[in-house]
Write a structure and sequence with these properties.
Helix content: 25-40%
Largest sheet: 4 strands, antiparallel
């Protein structure tokens, strides 16, 4: 589950050129999003103003999408995680957009990916228990008119869960 402050960003898929100092800053922010600019500047050997300007630039260009708090699902009564594979009946832009809009309004869905293969989407769903998942599946997900097939896979244990992209 993510609680996040979204930053301003350009909606672009254009790659951004990052130097070694930018990468070092990103690595530190991945480890601790609450690290201060002063702490970063000490570790990357720059003064605070250029560090602050680099972070702002990376937020504005969309390199930094958001700052997040990772929460243990089970400690906040969201102990059941389900991966749902969904195929749609119709494959056109309007039908896909309608499905995506509906998914974005479902709080139980914490991640959604458009995938290739037998299914069109993969959803990561977190709920309190099996009864809550049944309610979600029957009364929300299955109510969407363009759903062709849903396959649910229940997560028995989390082996690795990270947000770290740069090492």
């Amino acid at each position: 589950m993510i609680m996040a402050k979204t930053t301003k960003k350009e909606e672009s898929t254009t790659q951004v050129s990052l130097d070694q100092k930018d990468l070092a800053i990103l690595k530190l922010l991945q480890q601790n999003a609450r690290i201060t600019v002063k702490e970063i500047s000490d570790k990357v050997h720059l003064s605070t103003t250029p560090v602050y300007e680099r972070i702002k630039w990376m937020e504005e260009t969309g390199v930094i999408k958001q700052y997040a708090t990772l929460i243990d699902h089970s400690k906040v009564r969201k102990g059941l995680m389900v991966i749902c594979y969904v195929s749609l009946k119709q494959h056109n832009k309007t039908a896909g957009a309608k499905f995506i809009k509906a998914i974005n309004e479902m709080n139980e869905v914490i991640e959604c990916y458009n995938i290739s293969g037998e299914f069109d989407f993969m959803l990561k769903v977190v709920v309190e228990n099996m009864d809550a998942y049944y309610d979600f599946h029957v009364n929300k997900l299955s109510q969407e008119e363009n759903i062709g097939h849903v396959q649910s896979v229940f997560v028995m244990g989390v082996i690795k869960q990270t947000h770290v992209l740069l090492h």
